[in-house]
């Protein structure tokens, strides 16, 4: 299947009245991010990355993950991976084979009951342990199992002093369980497993971004950054311990690598450099956490539809430019009634008369849009989608500049990266402008810094990090590991075999 050409619809503006053209021009100015602005954002990003590594409490927290090294592709063994999302719980058993970069995987999904999200901590961890027990009983029957090492993808903001623990900072994804925030989530989880006699040892608690980095590096030695561009946005990359001043007291080997979970959605919470529009300001003010996640609110999938909705509502209420006159805009008036897929559908409308967009407005919003209104809506969707892709490139470019990388592969995952039309091409073009590549580069494939679809971070990545952690313990490198003895019990049993 060939790439679809990104076309401009400027030739379709002939019938657009002057008041709407004026608004389109105003929106072009508001949402276009020129090259010099991209460079300024990137430079500020570099300084904020450095600040986050230097001191606690910066806007970008730069969380050490205690994942200390890339896989070499020759890891072997069987590992479990658990991914606790907002909708499903996924359990995988991953066998890393003798073949370089090869693995076998079996997996099961379990529905996350809504009532658990506002229940008790005991109910939550009990349910998770029950699912793991079911998985093992189904796939292993009555086998006598040694302790299976587990990589747990816990994609909620957590601080980690050790790779096998994590203190929940705050619940997201609809969870609101009392008594868990501010606590280490590992002991109650392990207690639920022990109560049921499930032969599992949590070896690594990871963020999905770190998993994305490690899983992608397993099959691609040029992989240096893992990114998520989905409902939210984030990145992880490998830093030298000597470049993390806030860990200096731990006397780590300065040349030893450590994966850093940037949590970069909070970049520029101080509003120093990002080109926020009046609509971005409204989104921030009316969000559950004003003043937080400034970067994320301009480019993540959760917000793209809301920016679009706010602009259209503003134009409808503008006495100088009334769109959708005489129509009931009640559905458009509802916050977060549109998501990123609405904009995707508009951008993908293949018809010159935008008939699919016309049907979309009528079916979703009960609005019969005129041809000029459709043209404006299409242009607005392009502007919002393009801005998101161009801003996303600033974070990637900042890590490359900070590390002095002229070439790198970047593994990216998430619904916006995978599904939003032209996101990859627009991001590649912005990288070219920021990093100053020669003419001809900036199309994506073959660029010096290339953003590629990532491997399965929450499954294979979690298992690999468990494998790497176990390998470290066996080598006697226990920095950032709370319970190395507990991790070794299962492997000792496996080695002694019948003697145990």
From TrEMBL:
Top-rank EC class of the record's enzyme: transferase
Cellular component aspect of the GO annotation? cytosol; mitochondrion
Q: Return the EC number.
A: 2.7.1.-
| Pathways involved | Carbohydrate metabolism; hexose metabolism; Carbohydrate degradation; glycolysis; D-glyceraldehyde 3-phosphate and glycerone phosphate from D-glucose: step 1/4
Q: Some GO term, biological process aspect, for this entry: which one? A: glucose metabolic process
Q: Where are the transmembrane segments?
A: none
Enzymatic reactions:
D-fructose + ATP = D-fructose 6-phosphate + ADP + H(+); a D-hexose + ATP = a D-hexose 6-phosphate + ADP + H(+)
In this protein, which residues make up the domain named Hexokinase C-terminal?
Answer: 224-468
Q: Which GO terms of the molecular function aspect are on file?
A: ATP binding; D-glucose binding; fructokinase activity; glucokinase activity; mannokinase activity
* SUPFAM superfamilies from the UniProt entry: Actin-like ATPase domain
- The Hexokinase N-terminal domain extends over 24-218
Pfam families attached here? Answer: Hexokinase_1, Hexokinase_2
Q: Spell out the protein name for this chain.
A: Phosphotransferase
Taxonomic placement: Eukaryota, Fungi, Dikarya, Ascomycota, Pezizomycotina
